[in-house]
Amino acid sequence: MIAQPNFYPFEIRTEEMASWDLSAKVFNFFEIIQILDGKGERHFNDIKLPYQSGQTFIYTPQDCRSFTIVEPTRFLFIRFTDVLFANCESADQRERLSAWMKSLEYLFLNHNKAINELVRTSADCNLVQGVMAAIAAEASNPQLHSRSNIQHLLQVLLHIFARNILPDTNPLQPVFKDEPLINRLTGYIRKHIYNADQLRIEDLATFAGLSKNYIGEYFSKRTGVSIRQYILEYRLNLVKIKLQYSDLTVSEIAHELDFSDESHLSNLFKKYFLVSPTAFRKKLTEGQSQQIANLSGKSKFSGLHLTAS
C-alpha cells in the first residue's frame, strides 16, 4: 500500500477511464468522487462494492481506494485539504471554519463506507449534483472570490453528506422512524456532543422514552460500554481529529469539548492513547514533514491548483 501525499489545498478534475491504472493508495487528503457515467467495482480498505452512474463517494485521509472498471467510466474528482480553509482572519471566517470542522468530524466518525449509498434521498442527490457542478464551474474559470466561493460550496456539500450520514435524531422524523432506538440514541449523543447540558441522563432518558434507572442498563447491553464511557471515547476521538486538522490549542480544544481544563484533557488522552495531545500533534507534524522531504517528481494527478494565499 502506497501513501500518496498532496500539497495543494484544492484540485478538481474530470477524467474518463477504460481501466484504473493506479495501484491502491492511501491519500492524505479528502476526496469526493462522483460517477458521471459507467459502472464497475470500487475497492476501499479491503471492502468491495459495485458502483454505477450518479453515485457519489467521499474518502477521508488514510482510506485506501481503487476501482475495477467494467464499463468505461467518467469520474469527477474533487480533492482538498484543510489548508483550503486556513488563514481565517475575520470572525465570520473563523465561524465558517468551525462549521467546516464539525462536518469533517461527522464524516470521520460516522461514515459507514460499507453502505453503498452516501446520499439517502433523491432531493439531496439532485442537490449534490448541482453543488458539485457549481464547484466545477467555479474552478474551471477562477476569478475574484473563486477561493471563497469554493469554500462555501464545499461546506454546503459536506453538510449535505453529514445530515445523510447522521440523520435527524427526532424519533418522530418520518423518514427514519424505523431506525432502531439504540441508533437514534447514539445519534442524539453525537448530535449534541458539544452541549453537555443536553447529555444528562434525564435528557437521554426523556429522548429515548425510558426511565432514568433503566437507560444505562439498556445502553450498555446494546453497545458494550456505559453511556459515560461512550461519550468520553467519542469526545477523545474528536480531540484527535482537532489535533490533526485544526490549529486550536489543547486548551481551546478542552474548552470546546467541555473538559474541565487542559490538564484534565491531557491526562485522559494519555490514558487512552498512551501519548499526550502535544506529543501526538508533534508526531503528526514530523510525519508530514518527512513525506514532503521524500517527495520527488510531479504527481500524476495534476488538476487545477488554488494556492493557499
From TrEMBL:
SUPFAM superfamilies: Homeodomain-like. SMART domains: HTH_ARAC (SM00342). Keywords: DNA-binding, Transcription, Transcription regulation. Residues 183-283 form the HTH araC/xylS-type domain. One of its GO terms (molecular function) is sequence-specific DNA binding. It comes from the Bacteria. The keyword DNA repair does not apply. This is AraC-type DNA-binding protein. It comes from Mucilaginibacter gossypiicola.
